[in-house]
Amino acid sequence: MSYDSNRAILSQQAGRESSARTYPRYLPLAIREAKGVEVTDMDGNEYYDCLAGAGTLALGHNHPAVVEAMETAIDADRPIHTLDISTPAKERFVDSLFESLPDEFSDRAKVQFCSPAGTDAVEAALKLVKTATGNRSVLGFQGAYHGMTSAALALMGDTDAKEPLPGLPNDVHHLPYPYDYRSPFGPDSDHRTASRYVENLLDDPESGITDPAGMILEPVQGEGGALPAPDEWLREIRRITRERDIPLILDEIQAGLGRTGELYAFEHADITPDVVTLSKAIGGGLPLAVVVYDGSLDVWEPGAHAGTFRGNQLAMAAGEATIDYILEHDLDDHAARVGKRLRSSLEAMAEQFEVVGDVRGRGLMLGVEFVDPDAAWQGAGPHAPHSEFATAVQSACFDRGLIIELGGRGGATARFLPPLVLTADQADEVAAIFEEAVAAVAADTNAPEAPA
Q: Is 1 within a domain?
């Protein structure tokens, strides 16, 4: 069969790939080539890629620094796969990784290489704190996403993803995340109510919660709709967990390495976690996942956590090049500046379109939540999420050459995760395409129905 068009490849994929495939259902393209922030499909259509491997491609597609690092490794006949046997490439990667982290954390840190996906890092982090504390229960948060393996799914706030799967661990307690636009405590409360609730719950002997092995949270919820935790709330959570000897795990798999305008999202709040899970950007676009944690938790026995593909040397070379480039070129500061510019354009749309309910995020991790002006949300507060409108906007963006993802409550939030090398001019073009798409869907939605 000739694979020379979108239609041919998508047809073959639909016939052979599992029904669990997702992105091709609403992003119907096959990619021929990609460079920087842009991709070109088999039919010659060009797109701005604001999905970028769900945030994996920090430097965009085929960045010269990453390509050169991989070519050097291959040309020099360096090993590609080593289990957890070390190499100079591995040690240089760890050097760069630790250099990117705050000194007060990295000076006490150990690193565990995991199987290649972010969800594997989450599984390892849970095993780590359960081993170190001897406790079983875990504190998670509503709206959370930590991956698709068993323990990671148990942490997820979205019950629809968990209901078909019997036998998931049931020792997870979901706490309210400070979603100020849709506060779990009602429209007159804020993040201070959320932190007080957590503290009171942990001190209540009748809460039903046994001594926790740890607490895990995303400093910015990604799939939850680009929800940044307020700095004050994060500081309170750090105080609460430290005073009660509860290891705090921060999931920086999507937010980490410059995306939010700091190298790590927890740096906005100036806190030091006990455990950080990392994947996506740290591999330079290749599969790599690690857990970095305080050395006091390192009570594992040899072989307590293993995995065949934790020795991906090509990913470590690409990851080292990516981290070094981000540090050398201050891409965290660049993401803050360009993200502020993009967010300003998106916020202006909230004044223009009633259907735009909330614009939020940090750096180049942004979200626009669409609402239905004619529908209430749980009887009070903001309007209900408008899932159909968001889906239509995503499709209209795609037709105009912009790839975005959806997330949040009801999948009603348009999410922007462009490469950190996005320029100011490109950010303006992305915003213009998005505004045009929203305007088109709004006009179609408000158009009078044709007479019967």
A: no
Q: How buried is residue 160: exposed, middle or buried, by Cβ count under 10 Å (0-12/13-18/19+)?
A: exposed
User: What's the structural domain count of the chain?
Assistant: 2
Cα-based angle 257, 414, 15 (whole degrees, multiple of 5): 95
Alpha helices in 33-159 (DSSP H): 52-55, 64-75, 88-100, 103-106, 118-133, 150-155
Predicted confidence (pLDDT) per residue in 70-106, tens digit: 999 999 999 999 999 999 999 999 999 999 999 999 9
From the list 113, 120, 146, 281, the residue with the least C-alpha distance to 219 is 146
DSSP 301: P
Rounded CA-CA distance 39/403 in Å is 10
Among 278, 303, 328, where does a domain finish? 328
Q: 108 with 242, same domain?
A: yes
Strand 38-41 relative to strand 31-35, pairing: antiparallel
**Is the same domain home to 287 and 369?**
no
- pLDDT exceeds 70 at position 148: no
In this structure, which long-range contacts are made by residues 396-400, counting pairs with CB atoms below 8 Å and at least 24 apart in sequence? 396/436, 396/437, 396/438, 396/440, 396/441, 397/433, 397/434, 397/437, 398/26, 398/27, 398/28, 398/47, 399/437, 400/433, 400/436, 400/437
Given 328, 359, 374, which residue is the final one in a domain?
Answer: 328
Nearest to 437 by CA among 416, 410, 409: 416
Contact status, residue 173 vs residue 135, Cβ threshold 8 Å: no
Whether the per-residue pLDDT at 153 is higher than 70: the answer is: no
Q: Is 92 helix (H, G, I), strand (E, B) or coil?
A: helix
The conformational region for residue 149 under phi > 0 = left, psi -120 to 50 = alpha, else beta, is beta
Residue 317 lies in domain: 78-328
CATH code of the domain covering residue 416: 3.90.1150.10
Task: Label residue 207 by pLDDT band (50, 70, 90).
Answer: confident
